[in-house]
Amino acid sequence: MVGTLLIRFVESKKKCPPWNPLFTMAICIACFGIILVTLIVLGMKCQTNIKNYIYLWRVQSSRKKGYISLPEADDYQYHAFVVYCDSDRSWVHETFLGRMEQEEGVKLCIHHRDFDVGESITENIDKYLERSWKVVIIISNEFAKSEWCQWEVDVVQERRRRHGRDVVLLIMLESIDYKHMTRRLRTLLDSTNPIMYQRGLGEVLFWKAVTKSLRKPLGDPPTSILFLYAVESFNTNEKN
């Protein structure tokens, strides 16, 4: 019809074929498949950020719950005692330490810097754990392979049994290989919500979650504290 004047146009008696419903179904299935694949790819790429968002949401929601007053950060010399392996020293000293102390004002106890010379490592750990409000455990595959770090995990677990689960902040620099997973480490991961570190995308969210966790009050005291509180109240009532 190119070049034909509109006044000479004659409507055709042929009708357009009806729309096949199978085309609609095929388009819907294709769109659903594209959306599903996109969500799966985003989930795999951003799973660290999703976990950190969930962790941050739990930290914020737990503030709304009441808790028995426990020691605050001002009662201690350090905000946190940092447990890490020597292979991760560069990240701890150059990245973590600089960000927390210089930008966030969080005082950390680092054994390479703060331990007393001449005393045994175990004595230093016991002394500076008592001077620290919380404990930060930085986990990697090298950490999982270290027997000494596994012993420190046992010490920290005892600290958590006395002061509650909020006293421990668990940071994972990488996913732990199955061959390096130990019973102690599995128990720690099952009982503590870790914060995943990811360079680049989501790094701002990671630092925000770490800062809020280190400044979060110790809430929901462990059973032992509740039991002692109940016994003390009972004895007081008996005397009265």
UniProtKB/TrEMBL annotation:
This is TIR domain-containing protein. PROSITE patterns: TIR (PS50104). The chain crosses the membrane at residues 22-42. One of its GO terms (cellular component) is plasma membrane. InterPro entries: TIR_dom (IPR000157), Toll_tir_struct_dom_sf (IPR035897). SUPFAM superfamilies: Toll/Interleukin receptor TIR domain (SSF52200). It is found in: Membrane. GO terms for molecular function: signaling receptor activity. One of its GO terms (biological process) is signal transduction. Its main location: membrane. Signal peptide: none annotated. SMART domains: TIR. Residues 76-218 form the TIR domain. The lineage of its organism: Eukaryota, Metazoa, Spiralia, Lophotrochozoa, Mollusca. Keywords: Membrane, Signal, Transmembrane, Transmembrane helix.
